[in-house]
Structure formats: C-alpha cells, structure tokens
Model the fold of this input.
Amino acid sequence: MIATKSRSDLKQNREKNLREMEEMSLREVSLDIKNLTKIYPTPKGEYVVLEDLNLRVREGEFISIIGHSGCGKTTLLTMIAGLNEITGGQILLNEFPITGPGPDRGVIFQSPSLFPWMTALENVLLGVRQVFPGGSKKEQQDICKYYLSKVGLEDSFFKKASDLSQGMQQRVGIARAFALKPKILLLDEPFGMLDSLTRGELQDVLLDVWNREKITAVQITHDVDEAIFLADRVIMMTSGPKAQVGDILKIEFDRPRDRKQILEHVDYYKYREYLIDFLEH
Ligand SMILES: Nc1ncnc2c1ncn2[C@@H]1O[C@H](COP(=O)(O)OP(=O)(O)O)[C@@H](O)[C@H]1O
Ligand SMILES: [Mg+2]
Done:
C-alpha cells in the first residue's frame, strides 16, 4: 500500500492529474472525449448542460464519475452509449467516433430491464446470440452460464426474471454486460436502488468479474465510498450548467482490492474527505 497523503498533497495533484490526462499517449487511451458540448432545447431557451468537457480513459482502467444531481452525468454516459445526440465535440472509442449505439459498449443502468417472462439464462442468451451468431447453441449457453456463475447465480439459470429479487436481477444485468465482451462498460448508478448490504455485495461481484476481464469501465455514482472502492481515478464533475471535469483523484490502492483492508487504510479517509469537500464547495 502507499504512503499516507496529506490533503494539500491531494490538492496539489489536481493540476498534475489534469495535465497527465492531456498528455496520455493515444495508444493507451480507450475512450477519448474531446470538447464535448451538450445543449438541450427547453421552453425557456437552450440549456447548456456540458461545455467543452474533456476526459480520457485508459484501456483497462476503471473510473468513477461523481457530481451533483443534475450536473449532466447521465447525459454524458448516454452520449458515450450512443443513445443521446452530441451537440458539439467528439467521443472516440479506440480512435473511432461514436455515432450511435453498438455492442462494443456494455451498459448497466439502475434497473436491468430484463424480459420478466424469460429465465435468467434466456435473458443473457438474447444478447450473446447477437454478438456470437456463429457459435453453437452449446457454446452460446456456456458463455452465459459462465458469467451467471461468476455473479453468483449458478443455481438460478432457469428461474424466471420476474421471480428474482432486485439484487439478483442486477446480477443478471452484470452477467449480460460482461458476456457480450464489450470494449467498454458504462454504468449509471447501477446499485442506486439497492439496500446498502446488497449494494456492497454487488460491488464485490462487479469488481471480482472486472478483475478477471479488465474491461475499461466508466461508472457514475453519487456514493463516494463506492467511487473509491471501485475506481483507479475518480473524476469530479463541476455543477452545471456548462459542466466540465473539475478535478481528478487517483485512488492508489492495490488490486485486487479487499473491502476490509481498504476501510482500515488511513488514505481511505483522506480520499473520502477530499471528495466530500469537492462536493460541498
Ligand atoms: N431530454 C432533456 N431535455 C431537457 N433537459 C434535460 C433532458 N435530459 C436532462 N436534462 C437536464 O439536463 C441536466 C442534466 O441531467 P442529467 O444528465 O440527468 O444529470 P445527472 O445524471 O447528473 O443527475 C438536468 O438539469 C436535466 O434536467
Ligand atoms: Mg443521472
């Protein structure tokens, strides 16, 4: 583990971290967001949610984005997903501009929108069949079963989605996202609806599967503890309108991470205080 950081150390790192992001070599960058602007038309005129937002994410990196409610986090994520039109600027994924939705991006939202009458397995299969159309039925099923097992649903392959608890449904959502082998995972407050015990369990499940696959991941959360536990860097968004990246905090805990060890680490509280301080000012 790392040497203890003082708060002023972390503050001084702000410029350094922002500069480091600008200077990342394009070869290591997976997601490259350049001068991204989003304007929503409203009855009262144009509302500029994001203006000239820049963000680079490394291949295999896990970042968390925090910011006040309404600052434009979901707007940002849905634009990366290709579900929301870009007003200005560009989003590149592995150097290709995003122009619409695609299977190279796995999306996990707050509620996993499963087909309630289908089993857990069928729900995952639905996507896998589209992404691996050449695979045999057995191969496709094996992929689904592998990921369902990894999220702790080895006994629930054949349960109907409507018979699963909210937490179990979200596990199916995680399995489905990974089974499609996307280049990047996009998560918008995926555990926001769950009670805190289930939320902690699913954070562990997510990290566990992620540790094996190391897919680039961008997660939005308003939970500071979740952001620290999961991320390599926490991106702090300024409050809107015209939101941008305000600050970046590197989380230098080793991986794989152990919740108990992290909670006992002095730096954890420094990180936490720093993030809360940003949100409060
Ligand atoms: N389709 C839309 N039309 C107009 N305004 C919108 C639309 N979607 C979101 N907004 C506004 O844009 C801002 C950012 O919303 P959102 O991205 O959902 O924020 P967050 O996810 O950070 O809470 C909010 O003020 C919201 O009211
Ligand atoms: Mg949101």
User: Anything to note?
Assistant: The first strand starts at residue 29 and ends at 42.
